[in-house]
Design goal:
The chain has 156 residues and is mainly beta. Helix content is 6%, strand content 38%. The chain is built from one helix and eleven strands.
């Protein structure tokens, strides 16, 4: 296996596999700029494991404004962001959806540390929160995106 040298701060390691083959890729990680969020209903969304084919997550991408990202709803319950798990700030405490589409390793660690706590979060609850944080294994909690709720909208 050949290791490449990257002139970037972070490199992600990706495993692609099927029943016969395993491929390991090292890719430069570039954090996207996100300034606002669109909450989008996707009731048939199933994405329990990370797949190379992310077509199921492409719903609504054509609706996005520059520097905007998607947070999916499933039957009016908040689930996940398109590339991240989410948490919502209320009175100094962070709440993450109790039933995300993808559990996420960073989310599991933050739950274990007590930094976030699970909660059923409905679209009708969103007005109670101050901001939303998008995090994943590459950003962690410290370098995650935090978006004020005023910069979010729900697609009806």
């Amino acid at each position: 296996m050949v290791h490449e040298s990257f002139d970037v701060e972070k490199v992600k390691c990706r495993f692609l596999y099927d029943s016969k083959n395993v491929e390991i890729q090292f890719l430069p990680y570039q954090k996207h700029q996100i300034e606002s969020l669109l909450f989008l209903e996707h009731s048939d969304l199933v994405y329990n494991y990370k797949w190379e084919n992310r077509e199921v997550l492409d719903k609504g991408k054509d609706l996005l404004l520059p520097f905007q990202s998607i947070v999916f709803l499933k039957n009016k319950l908040i689930t996940d962001g398109i590339y991240s798990n989410v948490a919502f700030l209320k009175n100094g405490k962070w709440y993450t959806p109790a039933h995300p589409v993808l559990e996420g390793t960073c989310r599991a660690r933050l739950l274990e540390l007590g930094i976030i706590q699970p909660s059923v979060i409905k679209t009708s609850d969103l007005h109670q929160f101050e901001s939303v944080r998008l995090f994943n294994a590459m950003t962690g909690w410290e370098d995650s995106w935090e978006i004020p709720m005023e910069k979010t909208s729900i697609l009806k």
